[in-house]
Amino acid sequence: MRTLLTLCLLAFATFANAAPRADKVSWKDGGKDFDGYLVWDDATNAKRPGLLMVPNWWGVTPAAIAKAKTIASDDFVILLVDMYGREPRPTNADEAGKAAGRVFAAGDAPRTRSAAALEVLRRSAGKAPVDPDRIGAIGFCFGGAIVLELLRSGAQLDGAATFHASLDSPKPAKKGNIKTPLLVMNGAADGFVSHESADAFQKEMADAGADWQFVNFGGAKHCFAEPDEHGRVPGCEFHPKSYWRSLAMMHVFFNEHFRD
Length: 260
What we know:
This protein is an alpha/beta fold. The chain has helices at residues 2-17, 62-72, 93-105, 109-122, 142-152, 195-208, 240-257; strands at 20-29, 32-41, 48-54, 77-80, 130-140, 159-163, 182-187, 212-217. The protein has one domain (2-257): Rossmann fold (3-Layer(aba) Sandwich), CATH 3.40.50. It has 7 helices and 8 strands, in the order αβββαβααβαββαβα.
């Protein structure tokens, strides 16, 4: 407990003293234009690991940029990923649900669009102090599901972490597909992720021979790591204890897998 508290306090102190920036970056995939942001603390030019960050179903918003700045601090260069393209930009839950649904209805779009963004991050060394030899990914809700699809496609990163992600897939991983160490953080009281889904996912990872961890946070519901989501959508609740614990676990996880 003392170690976890120390990690949280250190993380908070680091975030408070950070001076992050967010630079717009654009790319193309499948004939569509995408606009994301490279986020990092430019107080130092030291090379650091890169993280692909796929936000929740609201997409690239001011809240998502603020979260990317918090997580990036001076530890990472983050590429905040646009999965929708320049249109649509959801303004309510109904539009967000439809936008996310269209991505998953478009064949391999979850995998190809995230792979295209991954290449943008790898090639950003001239724009930001990212170390292209140390690359990971994180995702929240819809974004976590996207990260899992990227890994199921066979993408090889140093590590990936998801927060309250949807776990089901139309194309489950086969043996040997998952080449990236994986930390999956789930709310034990998540009404959107059934116990059957969680059990099936863990069996999928075991059968695939993945290097994986699955953490259930007691009392946490969907959106436990989304400070701005509380009360916005029924069943989505911010859970401060789980939020800080998940960030601390994420840092420990990446400290292991981003070793020089």
